[in-house]
UniProtKB/TrEMBL annotation:
The keyword NAD does not apply. PANTHER family: FRIEND VIRUS SUSCEPTIBILITY PROTEIN 1, RIKEN CDNA 2410002F23 GENE. Residues 267-298 form a coiled coil. Residues 63-79 have a biased composition (Low complexity). Keywords: Coiled coil. Residues 1-79 are annotated as: Disordered. The lineage of its organism: Eukaryota, Metazoa, Chordata, Craniata, Vertebrata. The keyword Hydrolase does not apply. Residues 1-18, 38-54 have a biased composition (Polar residues). This is Core shell protein Gag P30 domain-containing protein. GO terms for cellular component: Golgi apparatus. Residues 19-30 have a biased composition (Acidic residues). GO terms for biological process: response to virus.
């Protein structure tokens, strides 16, 4: 509060200002009755520097917007009526972790990543932007991001910084790599949209998904993609149609579902059949092992004629396929048994077990 207000003396123009008929007339009265002075900050641009009198600037108390806002100019900070929350150092560390560009990430890819993570919801003033530190790992971009002192969105800061760093959209397009999957193709298309937002004067949105997909953008996308997709993509976008990047992303995903859906279904069915065969083979293997153990038990239990009779009873019940496996397990050369009878194979099994 200026010193003369403590003694009850009003500034020379107080009498004329006390009768102002603007929206501050009823709200400019301070709550402290010790000081009779009224706030003149809305006209002189000076706000009280002390809170002893409890007076607030008239524009804040009455909800009125600054003169520039009334004239239709967009303020650099948030819109009137928005609540801007300050970030603690802990909050800023969390934002830095979420928004920092990865080492293998290009600037144009990082811009899409930043939009998906923050959008236009993260509002920072100059001090908070400086505390946020380096996000892009590009000195020029990081320095420009911290330049604006007034509160504005992080997305607005980054777009302005990138515009200062590069000369034209082609400088960003050069960072794009070939794509192999449809999702990678959608990522490339959204990267192009961000480049258009930064450098085109015809774009009225800061949302990459709402940027019109131009024929030039689409042809660039087709050239970056696999040859197998080129024919389908060439007829997917007509030059005379006006569609956004989001519209084309939906078309690309629908195309991917139509092309790869039946293939995936066939692969899943084949995998089910293979699993069934594997289960059946495992079951047969268990039965063979059980037969081997059973025959071994007979060999250990019996002796002489009793053992031979037991083997006869057990051997005659063994199918030829199992005899084949048992003989092979005993080290027999199975080439010599091609065309031999089951009885001969059973007899040989007896001999091997008896020996």
């Amino acid at each position: 509060m200026p010193p003369d207000t403590q003694s009850g003396v009003k500034p020379p123009d107080t009498q004329s200002e006390a009768e102002a008929t603007d929206d501050t007339q009823s709200e400019a009265e301070p709550t402290d009755t010790k000081s009779e002075a009224k706030s003149t900050g809305t006209r002189s641009g000076v706000q009280p520097t002390s809170t002893r009198s409890g007076a607030q600037p008239a524009a804040i108390t009455s909800g009125a917007q600054p003169t520039a806002a009334r004239a239709g100019a967009r303020p650099t900070a948030a819109r009137a009526g928005d609540t801007i929350e300050s970030f603690s150092l802990k909050d800023l560390r969390g934002l830095r972790k979420d928004y920092t560009r990865r080492p293998d990430e290009s600037i144009i890819s990082w811009l899409v990543h930043l939009w998906d993570a923050a959008g236009e919801a993260t509002i920072l003033d100059g001090t908070e932007a400086r505390h946020l530190g380096s996000l892009s790992h590009d000195p020029v971009i990081d320095q420009e991001m911290m330049r604006e002192a007034s509160p504005c969105s992080l997305w607005e800061r980054v777009l302005g910084s990138v515009a200062q760093r590069y000369l034209c959209a082609d400088d960003l397009y050069m960072q794009q790599t070939q794509w192999k999957t449809i999702e990678q193709g959608i990522q490339r298309l959204r990267e192009m949209a961000v480049a258009e937002i930064v450098f085109s004067d015809d774009i009225n949105t800061r949302n990459p998904d709402l940027v019109p997909c131009t024929p030039v953008m689409w042809r660039k996308l087709v050239r970056l993609g696999p040859q197998e997709y080129s024919s389908a993509l060439a007829i997917m976008k007509r030059d005379e149609t006006e569609e956004t990047v989001l519209d084309m992303a939906k078309k690309l995903r629908a195309y991917a579902d139509a092309v790869h859906g039946p293939t995936h279904a066939r692969i899943a069915a084949l995998e089910t059949q293979v699993r069934g065969l594997a289960d059946k083979m495992e079951e047969n293997h268990k039965e063979l092992k059980q037969d081997i153990l059973q025959i071994s038990a007979v060999q250990v239990r019996g002796s002489g004629t009793t053992r031979k009779c037991s083997l006869d009873r057990e051997g005659k019940g063994i199918p030829r396929a199992k005899l084949w496996v048992l003989l092979r397990e005993c080290g027999e050369n199975m080439k010599r048994w091609d065309g031999e009878s089951t009885d001969a194979m059973t007899q040989r099994l007896h001999e091997l077990l008896d020996g």
